[in-house]
Amino acid sequence: MCNPSLIFAAARTALTVYQSYQGAKADREQAIAQNQIAENARIQKENSENLRIRQVAVGKKDKAFDVSLASLEAQATARTAAENVGGKALDRVINNYLRIEGKTNSQIIANLEAEIAQSNQNKKLFAHEQEARQVLIPEVNTAGIFASGAIEFGGDYLEWKRRKDEKDALQERMDSNI
Q1: How far is 152 from 10, CA to CA, in rounded Å?
Q2: Helix (H, G, I), strand (E, B) or coil at 86
Q3: Integer Cα distance of 178 and 81 in angstroms
Q4: Model confidence pLDDT, tens digit, residues 134-147
Q5: pLDDT at 1 over 50
Q6: SS3 of 136, please?
Q7: 42, 45, 152, 159: which could join 130 in a potential S-S bond, CB 3.0 to 4.6 Å?
Q8: CA 95, CA 118: separation in Å to the nearest integer?
Q9: Which residue has the higher pLDDT, 32 or 137?
């Protein structure tokens, strides 16, 4: 016949094993969710950075167009004002407008390239930030959980067996004294 204390010990051990397994599984799922949140945050930041760069590029393109348009207007004004004057003086004025336009466009392109380089650095930092926010995903060690429960139950069984043997020995002495 089964002893109730062993049944309770077995039930307690089974419940402990089950709770340990569920806890390990929950820890794993939480780590996976946290890593997913970190990845989503990096993706959102990169998307935001890409949008910012596109907006800067459009702004720089508009500025270059405006500079080109202003140069053409200035050249037309100079040619109109110098209707009767020609030669080297007019060529120098027109070439000066073209030089200023080219210099300004080069500066705009250099600024855009600097923005792109900074954006690429920001994206690398976003990846490092994601790595820093990620956690190790623990494995669910069912063998370890079961072994721990088995050792706990084995200890309970040995304690029960020791008490039972003591009780039987005491009963045997009492019976032999009678």
Answers
A1: 9
A2: coil
A3: 141
A4: 888 888 777 787 78
A5: no
A6: coil
A7: 42
A8: 34
A9: 32
pLDDT at 36: 94
Q: Which residue has the tokens 């110098």?
A: 82
CA distance 157 to 6: 7
- 110-135 as b/e, with b when 16 or more CB fall inside 10 Å? eebeebeeeeeeebeebeeebeeebe
pTM of the model: 0.63
Q: How would you classify residue 8: left for phi > 0, otherwise alpha for psi between -120 and 50, otherwise beta?
A: alpha
Put residue 175 in one of left, alpha, beta given phi > 0 → left and psi -120 to 50 → alpha. alpha
The two three-digit tokens of residue 2, written as one number: 């089964």
- From 28, 58, 34, 54, select the one nearest 139 (Cα to Cα): 28
The one-character DSSP state at 84 is S
Sequence-distant (≥ 6) Cβ neighbours of residue 32 within 8 angstroms = 137
SS3 content of the chain, % helix, strand, coil (to 5): 90, 0, 10
Q: Are 74 and 93 in contact (CB under 8 A)?
A: no
